[in-house]
Amino acid sequence: MTDSDAIAEAARCLECGCQANTQCDLRDYATEYQVDYREINTEERKMFPVDKSSEFIVFDANRCISCGSCVHACQTESVHGILNFSESSHRPSFPDGATMGDSNCVQCGACVQVCPTGALTDKRDKSHSRVEMLTPVKTICTYCGVGCRVELYVDAANNKIRYVKGDKTSPVNQGMLCVKGRFGFDFIHSEERLTTPLIRKSGELVPASWDETVSYVADKLNKIKSMYGSDSLAGFSSAKTTNEDNYAFQKLFRREIGTNNIDHCARLCHSSTVTGLEASFGSGAMTNDIPSIAHSDVIFIIGSDTSAAHPIIASHIKQAVTKARA
Ligand code: SF4
Ligand code: SF4
Ligand code: SF4
């Protein structure tokens, strides 16, 4: 192998598995400094054990260039306070020398999003950085009411979401996501998803066509309505469906079935706040925008475990507290 071959080899990929990687600072520096991998012995290249102890993230300190981006994301942006630089290894480390899985890491993946090499990667898919092969699609996380904007990186040829990034331009999440928004979309491709309606026949759930299912449900509803009246029926909808679906569902119950027995999970779990806000402000809605948290003198939280329920709001609050203390 000639010197130029060796440099080309180093430039191609440093065995991360993310072939055709176009966004790796480790690879770029190796090229810039004309690193000949034959001059680095295998022991030196693999000084640190690869940490695969956590659910969603692999940490390979051997690929770390000590840029500090992950520590900044964990300490200053998402304010989880987990990652610090180790004085001995000059690599990010977890408190008391713990592995990622044994630490209090919440698997938000902010560190993965900012890591410019293959040191911190999504455990399930190493295609992060293969941006040239994927189509970014912006949408809103469907898990909670915070409304973080996500960028789905879609493998159009295989109709698959390969990974998710937080959108930095969103004033709501400023690039941050919680574990659900970042790693919680693999259900879309689950083999266990229902792809056809099921009707229980003789105690067994049997696949059925949509035509058969709609006729079956309409028949059952009509029979109950004619025997016991419209108000014997009730519909319960979900915040996980779209506004349009919820609109159509309440029309079905109010206009076609003729009852106001229609409800929604968001009204139930938020009924106390809706009642209080409506009485105080005239509307059961959020009274301030999320960026205002950073400019608040007082943040009064009642009846909320914000870090667990709405982690990105919690990060904004923790940022504000850190700023006030500085
Ligand atoms: S996943 Fe989140 S909490 Fe865990 S180390 Fe990375 S930034 Fe910190
Ligand atoms: S962001 Fe990646 S390369 Fe930079 S210090 Fe963290 S692990 Fe190392
Ligand atoms: S806080 Fe988490 S679950 Fe809620 S919208 Fe943001 S990423 Fe999704």
Automatic annotation (TrEMBL):
<dbReference type="InterPro" id="IPR006656">
    <property type="entry name" value="Mopterin_OxRdtase"/>
</dbReference>
<keyword id="KW-0411">Iron-sulfur</keyword>
<dbReference type="Pfam" id="PF04879">
    <property type="entry name" value="Molybdop_Fe4S4"/>
</dbReference>
<keyword id="KW-0479">Metal-binding</keyword>
<dbReference type="InterPro" id="IPR006963">
    <property type="entry name" value="Mopterin_OxRdtase_4Fe-4S_dom"/>
</dbReference>
<keyword id="KW-0408">Iron</keyword>
<dbReference type="InterPro" id="IPR050612">
    <property type="entry name" value="Prok_Mopterin_Oxidored"/>
</dbReference>
<protein>
    <submittedName>
        <fullName>NAD-dependent formate dehydrogenase alpha subunit</fullName>
    </submittedName>
</protein>
<feature type="domain" description="4Fe-4S Mo/W bis-MGD-type">
    <location>
        <begin position="134"/>
        <end position="192"/>
    </location>
</feature>
<dbReference type="Pfam" id="PF00384">
    <property type="entry name" value="Molybdopterin"/>
</dbReference>
<feature type="domain" description="4Fe-4S ferredoxin-type">
    <location>
        <begin position="96"/>
        <end position="125"/>
    </location>
</feature>
<feature type="domain" description="4Fe-4S ferredoxin-type">
    <location>
        <begin position="55"/>
        <end position="84"/>
    </location>
</feature>
<dbReference type="Pfam" id="PF12838">
    <property type="entry name" value="Fer4_7"/>
</dbReference>
<dbReference type="InterPro" id="IPR017896">
    <property type="entry name" value="4Fe4S_Fe-S-bd"/>
</dbReference>
<dbReference type="InterPro" id="IPR017900">
    <property type="entry name" value="4Fe4S_Fe_S_CS"/>
</dbReference>
